[in-house]
Amino acid sequence: FAAVAYVGESMDEPLRYYHNITSNTLTVLETMVRHNVSKLIYSSTCATYGEPKTMPITEETPQAPINPYGKAKKMAEDIIIDYAKNSGLAVMILRYFNV
Predict the structure, then answer these.
(1) What does residue 36 show for φ and ψ, rounded to 5 degrees?
(2) pLDDT, tens digit, 9 for 90 and up, residues 34-77
(3) Percent of the chain as helix, strand, coil, to the nearest 5
(4) C-beta atoms surrounding 45 within 10 Å
(5) Dihedral of alpha carbons 86, 92, 95, 96, sign
(6) Any idea which residues carry the catalytic annotation?
(7) Where are the alpha helices (DSSP H) in 6-67?
(8) Rounded (5°) CA angle 60-72-35
(9) In the chain, how long is the greatest CA-to-CA distance?
C-alpha cells in the first residue's frame, strides 16, 4: 500500500490524500487482524507537527498539522493508536524528517 507523500500536492488534491492514507491504513489493520499479525511499524512524517513553536522537535512537541498530508498522517496515527489500545497490537510509529 504505497501512500502519497507530497505536501504541496495534498493542498491541490486533499480528498485523494485523506482517502489514500486513512482508508489504506484501515485496510492494512483489517488485513492484519484477519491474518493474526500482532506487530506494526508505521512510517509517518514530521508534517504531523505543523509549525512547532519551539525547536528542536521532541516526542512531547504537540502535533498540529497544517496541510492535508500531515492531517491525514495524524489521523492514521490516531486510528492505529486507538486500535492498539485494546487489541494487543504492538505499534511503533516513526516520524521521518527530510534534511
Answers:
(1) 55, 40
(2) 999 999 999 999 999 999 999 999 989 999 999 999 999 999 99
(3) 50, 15, 35
(4) 22
(5) negative
(6) 69
(7) 7-12, 14-18, 24-34
(8) 95
(9) 42
